[in-house]
Amino acid sequence: MSSEEMSDLWNSIFNVVEISNFGVTLVGIGVSFCGxxxxxxxxxxxxxxxxxxxxxxxxxxxxxxxDVSRMVVTIIMFGLSFHYYYxxxxxxxx
Length: 94
Prior knowledge:
Layout: H1 3-46, H2 55-92
Helix pairs in contact: 1-2
């Protein structure tokens, strides 16, 4: 294999990885939005006065709060990576 063919091979591999990374990121954002919605629904149910009596429900409330905060951070990080990616690709083509 010549040097040019090897370079073309690595460029095509990089393009496939970049496109699949974009798809995985979009799926991650969608899962995070759904997870936030459902966890907030669970929090509304678990924070009712009769539900707060059991220790198990207190643990479930803590888990739901941690899940929501993690998913919000995930959305922020994906948003920042999208912003950085499009900012660098738009300005590099000028």
